[in-house]
Write a structure and sequence with these properties.
heterodimer; A: about 550 residues; two-stranded parallel sheet; B: about 325 residues; alpha/beta; 10 helices
Chain lengths: ~550, ~325
């Protein structure tokens, strides 16, 4: 097999993994596939979150933040071992974000920085590439102190979140816009095309209605900046920022696969540098930076003098290879301390426990907030899978530390009583997997509550305007209903007495699903609304004496007292 | 010095560009649109079978499987041929409101719906559509209710609604005028209403006429403000070919979505007829209600939609 064949294999591998990634992300939703026990519980038929299971950064950082390894994350051991033996092949062969960035950097730029010797020079190793190691260490330092920040920059989380919550909804919006315009044109052929587009949008994106996500602008801008950076530096993200790449780079120091170069035969043509992805100094005369190399094999494939060879057990002389990143111990220790210091800093702020946001309604099955922040990688799987578009990335609702973690916004979508999809996709157990029975309760067990509904009697039709309504009562899904009404005699403006059904909440029964808030006809600021108090996952965010005393111990940790 | 040719060419280009750019200015508008009262075509549906003798009959069939109950009910009324003709496009409108199983009795019994589909097809219907505007997610609701599978296997086209399935029409009601209506209803020759008998906190009962909430979209959550009149307006608009009320299981409490089989009572009965007020009046008894306890039944009779005087009906027990 020639090196060019191997390089083509790498391209095929990148294409396949990117396709698989996108396919799984597209299937992250209610697909309506009937399984054998569909009448009991809808289960996802595809392992949609599997990329996250194989992500060693998520495994390592949650291990540090929780001293446990959640379920599917054991699979990432495969990647760890393979990386220890063979280096950062994930970055060059598998990572879907890496593939997207590589494709973008293929584009010939007329920018001065990307032409001729400037391009060659920019592809040499630069000090900024060490930044990713410090970022990694800062995040692991924070993880030790139970704050999991890795998800903000973990490439798999980032890509799922960015494509699932920004790109796909954008495509959906466009499809719907064009489809509506074509159907609205009334011209037969256009209408049919419009109908097809509408069908595609519903079935490919698995959304029966256009989805809307809360405060995705910063999230999307962040993603577009990462993409745009390729105009100035090839794979700037992979080289300078990516904490997963940094982790894999550190792991690869023992790898038995590596580059051996013949400094003497190199004629300094710099072709290897021109095509280098990692910025790892493949050219003759300098040592190869192993921790930076993505194993894309471009350098070997283009070298006209055959000076570069990847082989097993290469020569490890000092002029050949720098096996470990060139970072100083002093800065490593500084980064750990810095990362650790983030945690007391943010948690001394008021939005952690003292003055937290009442609208911080976490998905059903979420563990208590301290554990949640130690587990959630902000991948957005729960938000993408939610069939009601109920779950959204936070901006500041959970504090700075909780950026892009999930909250439920009932006004946009309520939590479907019989749905457990978000609990099925969470890769880290921030949302504990629930069976339908666990979620809605049985005669012997309580339903999982995510909050409690309240009436704003100044806006509620029967309370404030003597008008019949109680749509909320109709929609309340619990048995018996948490919303009940009392028929009262009310004197109207003209002196007549009428009978009105006025709604109330039984906080003992309310699960905080928000169906009432969603359907309230007072559409802008609903007359019934949910706040997080009464959520099963917390022992202290409670109203009722009994609830504070007995709770499902698997959801509530003793730490939070 | 420009040549004449060049002068003409350049002046021509500038003129053409101005004309093209200027065309956009034809959009000049001094009064931007403000939401105006909606207008749409007034639609008269022609489903009703107005035969007074048929209307005086009420089939009440007991103690059998849901499929046989439906079959017998249609048979004692005179057979499916009275209602469905060869080549008809038939819409069957079950109640598929909530993401609940058949045992929880929040949705019409799937076997009953499937049997109705088979009957219509046996009468030569060209196509049978089963559709509803659900409350919960239509995909989940049609699956868990069992209706997607049962009606689909029986040969019906099952259409859980999407937002694209509506056409704004003028219902011509006292209260309800322009409202988005499920397009399948507008295209149909016959409409068979297949509700289930359920408790409803606000109206006390969800029966046949209330089932027509499921043919419209839009801001249904405003209808509660004048619920009786809006139900009557819808029933008057639709006037179904036939009503086949599933009383196999009745949801006695926590309606209309229920959720617990403890709230369900088995009657193993089907009530059918062409007088939709009479069918509702009869079925109300399964919820321990008298017809006059239910506001919209009283209002519907007053509006001339049918009769709740059950003693004047011929009850056929098959």
């Amino acid at each position: 097999m020639t090196i060019k064949t191997v390089r083509n294999l790498r391209r095929v591998s990148q294409g396949l993994f990117l396709t698989l990634f996108l396919a799984l992300l597209l299937r992250t939703g209610f697909s309506g596939v009937v399984s054998a026990d569909a009448l009991k519980d809808f289960r996802l038929s595809w392992p949609v979150a599997v990329f996250l299971d194989y992500d060693p950064l998520i495994a390592v950082s949650t291990m540090l933040s929780t001293w446990r390894l959640y379920d599917g994350l054991v699979w990432s051991l495969i990647i760890v071992v393979l990386t220890v033996f063979f280096g950062r092949f994930v970055c060059g062969w598998i990572c879907p974000l890496g593939t997207i960035l590589q494709i973008l950097s293929l584009r010939k730029s007329n920018r001065k920085a990307m032409l001729g010797m400037n391009l060659i020079d920019s592809n040499r190793w630069h000090r900024y590439q060490n930044l990713k190691f410090y970022i990694l260490i800062v995040m692991l330092g924070a993880a030790i102190f139970t704050s999991l920040l890795t998800g903000i920059l973990d490439p798999i989380s980032l890509l799922i979140r960015s494509i699932g919550l920004v790109i796909f909804p954008m495509i959906g919006w466009l499809l719907n816009f064009v489809s509506d315009a074509l159907v609205g044109s009334g011209v037969g052929a256009f209408s049919s095309i419009g109908g097809v587009l509408g069908w595609v949008s519903q079935h490919a994106l698995l959304t029966i209605k256009p989805v809307h996500f809360h405060t995705i602008i910063p999230l999307g801008v962040f993603f577009f900046l990462i993409l745009a950076a390729n105009r100035w530096f090839t794979r700037f993200w992979c080289r300078g920022i990516c904490p997963l790449g940094a982790l894999l780079g550190i792991l690869s120091r023992w790898s038995i696969l590596g580059m051996e170069k013949d400094h003497d035969s190199c004629n300094q043509c710099n072709l290897c540098l021109k095509y280098c992805q990692g910025g790892d100094d493949p050219d003759g005369g300098v040592a190869w930076k192993k921790a930076e190399c993505h194993l894309c094999l471009n350098c070997q494939a283009v070298c006209p003098e055959s000076s570069i060879k990847f082989k097993l057990f290469p020569n490890e002389a000092a002029d050949q290879v720098r096996p470990a990143p060139d970072i100083s111990r002093r800065k490593v220790i500084g980064s750990i301390i810095g990362g650790a210091a983030i945690v007391p800093f943010v948690r001394s702020g008021d939005d952690f426990k003292a003055n937290f946001n009442a609208l911080l309604i976490r998905p059903p099955g979420s563990v208590n907030e301290e554990q949640f922040l130690a587990r959630c990688v902000r991948c957005g799987e729960c938000m993408k899978v939610c069939p009601n578009n109920a779950l959204h990335p936070t901006f500041l609702e959970a504090g700075w530390e909780g950026l892009w973690t999930p909250i439920l916004i009932p006004r946009i979508g309520y939590c479907e009583h019989t749905c457990t999809l978000c609990t099925q996709v969470c890769p880290t157990g921030a949302i504990k997997e629930l069976t339908l029975e666990e979620k809605i309760g049985t005669e012997s067990s309580k339903a999982v509550s995510i909050g409690t509904a309240f009436y704003d009697r100044g806006r509620c039709l029967p309370w404030a305007m003597d008008t019949p309504c109680v749509v909320c009562e109709e929609w309340c899904p619990t048995t018996p209903k948490a919303i009940y009404f009392v028929e009262e005699d009310v004197k109207t403006r003209d002196g007549n007495t009428i009978k009105l059904k006025r709604p109330r909440i039984d906080p003992e029964l309310c699960t905080g699903c928000g169906a009432c808030e969603k359907v309230c006809p007072v559409i802008d600021r609903p007359a019934v609304y949910v706040t997080s108090v009464g959520e099963t996952r917390s022992r202290y965010n409670q109203i009722l004496l009994e609830r504070s005393m007995k709770e499902d111990p698997s959801l509530v940790e003793d730490r939070e007292t | 010095m420009v040549t004449r040719r060049e002068f003409l060419k350049r002046a021509g280009k500038a003129t053409a560009a101005s004309v093209v750019l200027g065309t956009g200015y034809l959009l000049v508008d001094s009064r931007p649109d403000y939401p105006v009262e909606k207008t749409a075509a007034r639609i008269e549906l022609q489903f009703a079978n107005d035969d007074p003798i048929l209307a005086s009959k009420l089939a009440v069939i007991r103690d059998n499987t849901p499929a046989n109950l439906v079959q017998n009910a249609v048979a004692v009324l005179g057979g499916i041929g009275l209602f469905v003709s060869k080549g008809d496009r038939v819409v069957i409108k079950p109640n598929v409101g909530w993401d609940r199983t058949p045992e929880q009795a929040a949705n019409t019994n799937p076997e009953a719906v499937a049997e109705m589909v088979r009957l219509c097809l046996s009468a030569g219907a060209e196509e049978v559509v089963v559709t509803d505007v659900t409350c919960n997610d239509p995909r989940r609701t049609f699956l868990r209710s069992g209706i997607q599978e049962a009606a689909g296997n029986a040969g019906a086209k099952v259409f859980p609604y999407t937002d694209d399935d509506f056409v704004e029409v003028d219902l011509g009601g006292k209260l309800l005028s322009v409202w988005p209506v499920l397009k399948y209803i507008l295209d149909a020759d016959k409409l068979i209403n297949m509700p289930i008998v359920k408790h409803h906190g606000f109206t006390r009962a969800t029966l046949g006429m209330k089932n027509f909430y499921g043919i419209i979209g839009g801001r249904r959550n405003q209808l509660h403000q004048k619920i009786d009149q809006s139900i009557v307006d819808l029933a008057n608009f639709v006037r179904p070919t036939l009503v086949v009320m599933d009383c196999y299981r009745a949801l006695m409490r926590n309606g209309p979505q229920g959720g617990s089989i403890n709230d369900v009572k088995e009657y193993r009965t089907v009530v059918a007829g062409t007088d939709q007020v009479a069918v509702d009046a009869y079925a109300a008894r399964f919820l321990d209600l008298e017809p006059h306890d239910v506001g919209h039944i009283v209002l519907a009779e007053a509006a001339g939609l049918g009769s709740m005087q059950l003693d004047k009906k011929t009850i056929l027990n098959g």
